[in-house]
Amino acid sequence: MSVQLAVRKDDTRLGARCIQWWSGSPYSHCELVVAGVCYSSSIMDHGVRAKVIELDPEKWELIELPWADPARVLAYFAATDGHSYGWYSLTYSQLFNRNQVDPTSQFCSEWCAAALGLPNPAIHSPRTLAAECRYLGQFAAPLARAVPPPPWPPRAVVVCPPRPAECGCFFVWRNLMTAEEKDRDILARTLWGEARGEGLAGQIAVAWTIRNRVHDGLAKSWWGEGYAGVCLKAWQFSCWNKNDPNFAYLSGSKPIPAGQFAQAQRAADQVIAGTAPDPTGGATHYYATTMPKAPAWTVGAKQTLKLGHHVFFRDVP
């Protein structure tokens, strides 16, 4: 008994077209298929259900999941059967990047990702889940005897082989890292998304604005806790917005060029360790000079540095 991911494509209904537009893909819904039965959470069926669906290849794309455990999928369905549709987590995780979930409700790609044992299931849209499943399928066969199927134990790090003909980078399950490893990884990805054209010095400057938010002296900071929390704070670093072109790279759906990412990691390491001095003079904000005009928050703020295409500020009102 095998598992397949079925993704609905090119649906012309209004709701589906909105999802396609938001996720930047032809996909609007997904199902897990086990023994001819489709399992998912559906808007039309008001939540989690099992259903026999005619998977017309003109309307559905099927992705084989040789690494997936069908018993796990069925067990997860038994535990969640009848859960309502996840409007709450859909709104906060997909629209506002907050990764807030309701354990009694799931949307389709969240449910499918959780049933497969993937980390942070609510971050997935049908597009990103399909991309992740395809990628996992690339190394499932050669490593089937060496790597157990998900879910992996706490703090395990699963490293996939390089993507063929693309780059030498590899994909790591970020939520299975230690807190320190996750901080480094998220900070480096943020530096790549925000400042990959600025050189090492420019990336160090951007990293210091993040460090200054992390170490703002408050017990519970509005900026978020730790480097990962600050970087992923909703609407603060645009590269993490789901409608930003960089997001596909930061989330792992597309590969970041290895050389560029290595430089971002060097900048992250130097700033986290404090071995690179703060060139921004305590800045917590910056904006790109490519913007048509300076943001409103610059009024009354103290400019501390102009470096490359970024202008840095502290004491922002």
From TrEMBL:
Coiled coil region boundaries: none
Domain Cell wall hydrolase SleB, first and last residues per copy: 197-313
Transmembrane segments: none
Pfam families documented for this protein: Hydrolase_2
GO terms assigned for molecular function: hydrolase activity
Source organism superkingdom: Bacteria
Name under which the protein is recorded: Cell wall hydrolase SleB domain-containing protein
